[in-house]
Amino acid sequence: MPPIIEYTDYRRYIADFYAERKNRSAFTWRDFALKAKFSSAVFLKYVCEGKKNLTSKSAIQVAEALELVGYEKTYFCLLVDYANAETEGKKTKIFNEIVELSKIHKVKVLGKDEFEYYNTWKHSVIREIAPVMQGALPKQIAKVCKQKITAAEVSDSLKFLLQAGFLTKDEKGNYHQTDRSVRIGNVEAVSFAVKKLQKEMLNFALNALDEPNSKDRSISGLTIGVTSKAYEQIVEEIRNFRRRIIAIATEDNATDEVYRLNFQFFPLTQMKKVSNKIQEEDYEQDSSK
Fold it and tell me: How far apart are CA 166 and CA 181, in angstroms?
C-alpha cells in the first residue's frame, strides 16, 4: 500500500492497512482493536466508516498499531488533528505543520499546491489578470483589482503560480496560463480551502450589491419548494450549466475583465428533520401508553 505521506484522510489509511493485512492473513477487526489497545472489537471499523472519531490520544495508539514510526507517526497524528479541527485558524495551522514536516523530510504533500491556490482569492484572480496585462508590474496589476491587494502580495502570488505550474513565463517576461481552466484534483486535501475561498467570494458578492453600476453585474435568486427527486435533478442541471459556462469562457483566449460566478442552492427549511422528530415523539407517546 502507498506510504502514509500520500494520504490526506486518516480513515482511508486505516481501512487500506486493514484490507492489506486481511488479504495476507486471518486478520480481524478484533485483532486490530487489540493491537491498538481498544476494548471494543469494532471501534476501528466504525472509525473507518465515519461513525466514530479518533482523538489526539487514541491517534497515538492507532499509529503504533499501524507500525508507524518517526515522522510518519507524527504525520498520521496531524491528519487526525486536522480532521478534528473546528475552526479555519486551527485547520490552517495544522496543514502548515504538515507541509513543514514534509519539507524537513523531503517528501511531497499531495494537494499542497491546490490547498494554497484555493486558500485565498488572490491566486485565482492574478492567474486570470497576469496573462492579459503583458509586461505589467505587480503594482499595476494590484491597481486593477477591485479587492485590496498590495504589489508585494501580487509578486508573491505570481511566484507561487509559476512554481506550482498554474502559469508559465516566456523569455520576454510575459505570463501565460498552463491551462485555460482549473479543476480540483485532490478534493480531500483542499475541501477546507475551497470553503474558505467560497466564503470570501460570497462577501465580495454582497459588496457588489452596493456598487452603483448595476450594468456590470447580474445577481438574482429563486425561492422554491422541491422534492428530493427534483433536488437531484436541479443539482445535475447546475453541473451541466457550469460545464457550458466554462466552455463559453475558455473558447475565446481574450479577457476584458475577471468575473466571479457563484452557485448556491441550499435549504431554507428543515421539514424532514422536524417531521422525523414529530414521528419519534409520537412513537414515544404511543409506546408509553
Answer: 10
Whether the Cβ atoms of residue 52 and residue 43 lie closer than 8 Å to each other = yes
- Residue 187 sits in a domain whose CATH number is 1.10.10
Into how many domains does the chain fold? Answer: 3
Distance between CA 184 and CA 169 in Å, rounded?
23
3-class secondary structure for 5-49?
A: HHCCCHHHHHHHHHHHHHHHCCCCHHHHHHHCCCCCCCHHHHHHC
**pTM of the full structure:** 0.55
Residues 95 and 58 in one domain: yes
> Do residues 86 and 126 both lie within one domain?
no
Whether 182 and 167 have beta carbons less than 8 Å apart is answered as no
Tell me the sheet residues that pair with 210. Answer: none
Tens digits of per-residue pLDDT, 41-74?
Answer: 999 999 999 999 999 999 999 999 998 988 889 9
Cα dist from 116 to 95, 131, 173, whole Å: 10, 20, 24
